[in-house]
Amino acid sequence: MLLGIVSDTHDDLDAVEASVTFFERQGVDAVVHCGDFVAPFSATPFDADFDFYAVRGNNDGEWNLQSVVDGFGTYLGEAGALSLGGREIAVYHGTSDVLVEGLVDGGTYDYVLHGHTHAHGSETRDGTVRVNPGGLPIPVEGADDVFRVATIDLDAEPGPDAVDHHVLDRS
């Protein structure tokens, strides 16, 4: 099973469309959005040929986002847990480093997915893989200077070799 991960699209429809197109071309089975759509209209393009899951980000101020996402996917609220492809996955926007670290260090999940920092990365600690797909480039130290998403091969052994980050062109 191939899982797509995206975060921090911030109403940038070019980034959203690039993500959906990329995930469809890759043949992902499901996509997780780690929050910060901002407005509900930027969630609707994810009504595509894959299962869709999303959490709320700190910039998702319109509460209608839940009903929009639930119209075609699954809205997990502030955080959620998924069982996909035989793997246990936690999803959280990432606003609190303490909560991200607790999810990773708790040992309950194969993967902990989060965004918020706009900086892609992955690491493995005690059998749990933390994955941040990145996000839109923002003028903050440490943030990516290009838009990125990630994919995880859930059929592979959990670890860094199962995770790929991808640079997408938003034009």
Automatic annotation (TrEMBL):
Protein keywords: Metal-binding
- Molecular function GO labels: hydrolase activity; metal ion binding
Q: Which Gene3D superfamilies match?
A: 3.60.21.10
Tell me the enzyme class.
Answer: hydrolase
- Keyword DNA damage listed: no
Q: Look up the record and name the cofactor or cofactors this protein needs.
A: a divalent metal cation
Q: Which domain of life is it from?
A: Archaea
Q: What is this protein called?
A: Phosphoesterase
Source organism per UniProt: Halalkaliarchaeum desulfuricum
